[in-house]
Amino acid sequence: MRMRELGALVGRYLRALLRGRGGRIALAASLIVFLGVLLATRGDGVSRSTLMLASFLVVGLVAFATAAWAGGLLPGDRAEGREVWLASLAPSGAARRLSAAVAGMVLAVAVAVAGSAVLAFVLPVVLPDASVRDAREIELPGRLRVGRGRRSVPEATLDLGGPVAEGATLELVVSPIYFGAGQESAEDATRQPLLLAWTIRGAGEETQGTAHLPRGAPVAIALPAGARTFTLSSRGPRVDVVVKEARVLGSERPLLLTLLLAGLVLGLTAATVAPVAVAISRWTSAPTATTASFVIAVAGGLRFLLPDLAMPDAGRLHELGLRIVSTAALLSPDLEALGVLGEPAAGRALESVGPAAFLPPLVYAAVALLVVAWPTRAEPARGRSS
Asked: How many other C-beta atoms lie within 10 A of the C-beta of residue 87?
């Protein structure tokens, strides 16, 4: 079959998805939910991370639902008699199924990218600090524990990777470790202040400072222009500080480009659901195929919950439920690539995404496309039933 004819079939199914009632319902529902997110997150206590992640959640649900809606294309042809008419033409059943899957994949990517572009214009209006900055990771020497405990070092020096530019910020992700509570309770120990002291060298005179560590949030420290090293120590009694991540935030980057790249990652991940929906629709009705494929996609998020769900000696019923959840997660696409959405939510720019992040979803989509194209019986010379 010629590529032009295959492209015509993809275009036909794209028009069917755009004109269908489900597409209009999904668009209206997404607008209502997005307005609800904006209204619910208004206020000084709402962080940029919360609003961005909630907005990405809305865009992602619409993209996944769009991909799942491709499962209604072939059953729609069967129900309205178009399948017989299409079968009398040149395209085979496999070509029609592949075209329906590709149409769903293309539309899912388009929805995710378009939704992210809308966020790039809406978020700065409702969120004054909706900006992203260039981020450069600092390599840490293994497990870096600073403090006065037996397993810690008194102080640690981080190499900033050369003189930093003016306006740069050092971002540290740290966690406390309490020790030596002695006669006091653990609750009293956790009330001890988390105090971090530092010395910055390389920018003329040394710069020193201290700050109380925010619980559950990164530590942001302004760096003077030309700084080369950063030495830190813990000043809190009976509290060590473990440095998990360290990065230098530089100049501001265009928010639109970062969100478009994030939307592309989101769309490509959501697109893997479309061939699954079309494969299921070969033997089921449109509502069944759409619902089943969407549930399979949502089950992909259960992969991240499996470590928390594992409980030793919790009983046979809990073990059975855990096995069911594990099986559902194995049948679902790998959503690990969506972890990059946390970068713009944290104010860090996305410049590129490694191809390794897309390998599991692409393998998953390839297997689903193989099931879509696999014939159930010998293909006749002309079209056949799907």
From this structure: 18
Give residue-wise pLDDT tens across range 82-134.
Answer: 554 454 455 667 778 888 888 889 999 998 999 899 888 888 877 777 788 98
Q: pLDDT per residue over 346-386, tens digit each? A: 888 887 777 777 788 888 888 888 888 887 664 444 444 45
Amino acid letter at 8? A
Domain range for residue 347?
A: 3-130+255-373
Which one-letter amino acid corresponds to residue 298? V
Q: Are residues 318 and 228 in the same domain?
A: no
| Whether residue 40 sits in one domain with residue 97 | yes
Task: Tell whether 262 and 332 lie within a shared domain.
Answer: yes
pTM above 0.70, yes or no: yes
User: Are 247 and 279 part of one and the same domain?
Assistant: no
